[in-house]
Amino acid sequence: MVERKGCSAADAWRAAIELFEGNRAAADHWLHQEAVGLGGRRPIDVMETDPQQVLDLIGRLEHGVFT
């Protein structure tokens, strides 16, 4: 789990790009898809109000935790 105090939507965006090894198009596509780990919500929507939730999901994905 990635924990950052005072994290922002920009932090979540950067983490998504890192998740996709620098591929911004893949990160953007993922951010706009519904995510089971976010209760069917899209990461792009969640990160505007709670970027830590998106960072947590990315951390789980990086560690192979099915969410």
UniProtKB/TrEMBL annotation:
Residues 15-64 form the Antitoxin Xre/MbcA/ParS-like toxin-binding domain. Pfam families: Xre_MbcA_ParS_C. This is DUF2384 domain-containing protein.
